[in-house]
């Protein structure tokens, strides 16, 4: 492919990204995108991410319907994300079809599998999400986070804590916030024990994170431990 053609394509991609992400000019970005005759998976992924960020996931599926190439693992992850955000009948049909047709080697990719788990959890299809999670050979903290968050979103708080207790990896601030949320919702003896032990072990730098601290405060208030909540505040 000639270098001047590649240079032109990269410039158009940069303009589309700037138009979508900074100017939020969806119509002009769509017009520019349609002017590209040979679209790559990278271009579709950039466009899809921009549309999701601008809260128009329906347009992602419109573009996907016109797509003439097979989506790669990165494009698939973005499509699963769009379906999760949209979460209507069309999104469920598209997302599950994509998942059924996904090449086997993509199922071993944690990013793609985690995006699929998040989508299925949003659909309320917990059983399918669990199947994918079990199939991941080397589970990372992001995959665990998607499952725990999904259980909480589906009000399966005991399952969220069951899975949390199986994690033997370094915890992120996101995991802390999700587990504090699960403990706050459950609010029984087990939840209080897990929540308070987790809070005691939480690294100091996470205490300066507003999301984590707010989740901890909410949990402690639900436990009736106003004094500890006030100390964090």
Automatic annotation (TrEMBL):
Top-level taxon of origin: Eukaryota
Signal peptide range in chain numbering: none
Cross-referenced InterPro entries: PPR_At4g14850-like_plant, PPR_rpt, TPR-like_helical_dom_sf
GO biological-process terms attached to the record: RNA modification
GO MF term set: RNA binding
Entry-linked Pfam families: PPR, PPR_2
NCBIfam families attached to this UniProt entry: PPR
Protein name, per record: Pentatricopeptide repeat-containing protein
Organism placement in taxonomy: Eukaryota, Metazoa, Spiralia, Gnathifera, Rotifera
């Amino acid at each position: 492919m000639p270098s001047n053609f590649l240079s032109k394509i990269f410039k158009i991609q940069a303009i589309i990204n700037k138009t979508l992400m900074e100017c939020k000019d969806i119509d002009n970005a769509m017009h520019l995108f349609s002017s590209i005759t040979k679209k790559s998976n990278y271009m579709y992924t950039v466009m899809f991410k921009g549309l999701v960020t601008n809260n128009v996931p329906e347009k992602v599926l419109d573009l996907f319907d016109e797509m003439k190439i097979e989506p790669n693992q990165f494009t698939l992850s973005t499509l699963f994300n769009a379906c999760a955000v949209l979460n209507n009948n069309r999104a469920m049909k598209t997302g599950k079809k994509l998942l059924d047709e996904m090449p086997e080697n993509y199922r071993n990719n944690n990013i793609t599998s985690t995006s699929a788990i998040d989508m299925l959890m949003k659909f309320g299809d917990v059983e399918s999400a669990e199947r994918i999670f079990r199939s991941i050979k080397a589970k990372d903290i992001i995959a665990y986070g998607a499952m725990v968050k999904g259980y909480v979103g589906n009000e399966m708080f005991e399952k969220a804590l069951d899975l949390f207790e199986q994690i033997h990896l370094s915890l992120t601030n996101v995991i802390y916030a999700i587990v504090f949320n699960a403990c706050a919702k459950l609010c029984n003896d087990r939840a209080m024990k897990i929540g308070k032990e987790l809070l005691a072990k939480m690294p100091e730098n996470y205490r300066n994170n507003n999301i984590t601290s707010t989740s901890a405060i909410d949990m402690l208030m639900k436990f009736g431990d106003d004094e500890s909540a006030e100390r964090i505040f």
